[in-house]
C-alpha cells in the first residue's frame, strides 16, 4: 500500500481514505474506512474522463447493482457505490490477505486435498456470480485473495462494464492470457463456461506452480490456448480428471458450475490452507490494525466548488488551468517560440480579410502538430501539414483560416505529455495532431482528454491506444491489433503458401504480440500458421534451420527492431530458406535495409509513397514546387490529417473545439491516402478494404513502392 498523495481527497462518499492500494489505467483503488462502523473497504474510483461516454454510467450503475446482490461467502460484497459522481466509485469489503498468485510464488504448489477445497469454494463463488447475471471474465490467481476463513474472488462486474466500452476492436482480448478461455482469446462473446475454463487454469496453476498453456509472449500463450492441449503434468490425478473437461476448447462441452461443485466436494474450513500459509495470512491481516487515520489532504489553490467538498474526480477548472498555464506560455513566447513555431502571426482566432479586399472578419483555427523536431518523419509531416493549411487558406468560400503551430516533444514520453499540456491549455488550439511515435503519442492523450481537445493520431499504431473510445483521441490508422493488412493480403492473394511461420521475436514481446495474435488466433491467413518464438536477444539459427526444412514456407517476422530483423534475414538465407519473407514498417531502419539478406523482403506500411503512387500526384507536385523534393514518408498522411480536421471544424460550426470529435465521428471523409471513417459503436478507425495500407519491397537497399493494399492480387 502507498501513502495518499497531496492531491487525493480525504473522503469519498463519506468513506475516510487511508492509503492507495493500487493505480491503473481506469483509476485508483484506495483503502478506506466505512462511515458506518469504520469497517475497512477497498474503494475504486473510475477516472472522470471514462464517464464521458454516454453509455458508461448506465452500464456502471447496472453492473454495480448486480454486484451488490452477491451474498455468497466467497465473494467480496459491494458496500456502497455512486454512479452519478463526477468520477464514479464503488466500495467493497477489504480482504487483507495475500493473493493466490503470491502464495504459490512464495510457498509453492498446493497439495491435492487443499486444491479440492479451494476449487469447491471458488466454484461456489462463481455460481453466485452467474446467478446474478454476471460473468467474471478475469478469474486468475491475482484475483483470488486468501483470508483465514477461506478464499475470496474479487474484481468481478466492473471489469466487464469497462471492457464493453473500451475494448471492442477486432483482435482485442479482454482478460489475462494464460487464464482466459479460447472464446475470449478470439474476442467472442463469453458466458459462464468461460469462467469454468479460467477456474480450471487457476487450479492447475496452483497444483504445479506454472500456467497450463506455458509462459513466454502473450501471443504464443493465446495461440496455445486456442490450438493446443493444456499441460497438466504434475496435476494430482483426482484433480486432473476434474479440470481436463473444463479445459475443452468448445464452451458447450465443458461441465457447468453445479456439476463442477459436485465433483470437487465440500469446502474444508479447518484444513483448506497448506502448511505455512496460515501464518502469512495472519501476518497480512495484522498490518491493517496499525494503520493511522491521516490528516485531511488538500489541493493547492482554491477548490472547485462545482463538485462539492471531498468529491472524487475533482479537477482543475478551465479557468484555473489557463491561469496556471499563463506563466508557462509567457516564458515560451518570450523565448522566441522555444516550444512552438507558428505559420503567420500567433493570431489564434483574430480576423482576416476575405478575398477581393473586403473587410469581412474571418476567424482562425489553430492546429497543433506535436512530435520530435529532430525526427525526419516529423519534418515530413510538418511539410505536408503546411501544404494542407495553404490549400485551405486559398479556398474562397472557407469559413475560417487555419494556422499551424508545432510543438516539440523531444522524442520522449515526458516531453510529449508536457508539450501536449501546453497546447491543450491554449484556448486558441482547436485540435492537436499527434505526429510522434508509439513511445510518445500515448503520453499526450491524458492532457488532451482533460482539456477536451481532439487528438488526431497519424503515425502511432501501438495497442496502448486501444482505449481511445474513452478519450478525445481519434486514430487515423489501424493499430497493430488489427494486423498488418498489406502483407496479409499479399500472402493470401498472391503467394498463397501452404504454411506461414510467424517468427515472434520476444525482444519486443508485448509490442509485437498483437500481430501474432491477429494472424493466429483470429485466423487471418488462408493457409496454416505456426509460431516460432525466439527468446529476447537469442540467435535465429535454430528457428531458421527448422523453417528451412520446408523451404517454401512463407515467413512473417513479428518484431520491431531493424537489427533483429536483419539477423533473422541472415539466418534464413544461411539456412537455405527460399520462401516469401514479410515484415512491417517497424523494421525498416538502416540496419535492416543495409543487410544484403533483406533483399526481396516484402514490407507492409501505413504510409503511402507519394512519389510513386499516382493517386497522390497532385500533392507530390505541390510538395516539389514548395520544397524542391518529393514527399518523404508520412507527409501525405499529415496533409490528410489537417484537411480532415478542417472538414470537421467546418461541420462543427461555432462549437469548434468542443464539438470537433463528434463531428469527425459522424462524417466519413475521403483523403488522398485513405478513406477516414469510424465504427459507430467502438469509435475505432473503420478502414475500407485497403485499410490505408501499402506494400513495398526491399530492392537494392531501399523500399520500393509496389501497391496499395486494395490493389494487391487484382
From TrEMBL:
Bias (Low complexity): 350-364
Pfam families: Peripla_BP_6, Pkinase
CDD domains, A to Z: STKc_PknB_like
Keyword rRNA processing: no
Superkingdom of origin organism: Bacteria
Binding site for ATP: 44
ATP-binding found in the keyword field: yes
Alphabetical keyword list: ATP-binding, Kinase, Nucleotide-binding, Serine/threonine-protein kinase, Signal, Transferase
Region Disordered, residue ranges: 292-316, 344-364
All residue ranges annotated as the Protein kinase domain in the record: 15-273
GO molecular function, one term: protein serine/threonine kinase activity
PROSITE patterns in alphabetical order: PROTEIN_KINASE_ATP (PS00107), PROTEIN_KINASE_DOM (PS50011), PROTEIN_KINASE_ST (PS00108)
Similarity annotation: Belongs to the leucine-binding protein family.
Matching PANTHER family: MITOGEN-ACTIVATED PROTEIN KINASE KINASE KINASE 20-RELATED, SERINE_THREONINE-PROTEIN KINASE YBDM-RELATED
Entry protein name: ABC transporter substrate-binding protein
